[in-house]
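Researcher: We're teaching a course module on how sequence relates to structure. For the next exercise, students receive a sequence and then see the predicted structure as tokens, so they can try to spot secondary structure elements on their own. Here is the exercise chain.
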Amino acid sequence: MGNGRKVEAVVRVNCSLGEGPHWDGGSQSLVFTDILNATVYRYHPVTGQLSSTLVPRVEGVGFIVPVDGRDGEYIVGGDKSFIWLHWDGSDGGGKVKQILDTVHENPGNRLNDGKADPFGRLFAGKSPWTMGSETSPGVFAQEQGALYLLSPTTGKAEKKVEGVTLSNGLCWSQDSSHFFYIDSVLRKVDAFDYDPLTVSLSNRRTVFHMPSHLPEKAVPDGMTIDATGRLYVATFFGSRILVIDAEEGREIEEIKLPVENVTSCTWGGENLDQLYVTSAAKFTDLTTYPESGFIYKIMGLGSRGFDGVKAKIPILAQP
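Model: And here is the predicted structure for the students to work with:
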């Protein structure tokens, strides 16, 4: 592709709904989920090693975030629950240690994208289960979900944003003063003022609308941010990553991929200058897009991002 960009398929597995990429700088590895198959993966780029495990007793896994200071320990979003998972990285080796909390509101919803803020506090939102949970074709029950914080002290979920339909991308500015958020059905990116002392969100406003030249069904999905503050937004039904200047509310660049459903992205590599991208084999024509569900690496972007932040959950250290 032009401008020195290079897109390479690095994990050739047709994930039904690949999501939740998280780069672990300590092990130089990428963890991610296949939501609809309740499976988590770990990929080591240097060796090419790929391992996976089912998360027991759940139907779907929305996210996976390592726990700070505890090798082989993760928080995953299993169905409606925040789950403490032990996984040594071996195939099939995952074991549920504890269900920390279950969000019982709106039984048709599940936990979707989750990520820790720069201080290790874990946020995750809810979304409808799949497109099978539409009230009619293309229409979801509106504003039935929310964005939650998993309290580091109690291990319980606290509601932070209400009236959400399909919670997706989330990231923070480098100075932690702003939080960026996507409710996919709104087809836009919003920003909040973020107070890291009180963990409060305020002054919600829209910083970007989906461009009109994309298909009407294309929606923003997962998202990350680079060191300059630019947002990188995956587009489901859009076949691309949108690079956005959030301050000016404009698109800077589009990076096209050989799949229809681009789901999320995160920075990785030794210098954090490679963008890892997840995709989905569900809800697409595999004859037209045979590489759907693969994990991609984009190089030559001329920018870099941040290491994935691990979840700091002090209550897990208690007997």
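Model: If you want an answer key for the exercise: Residues 131-138 have pLDDT under 50 and may be disordered. DSSP finds no helices and 24 strands in the chain.
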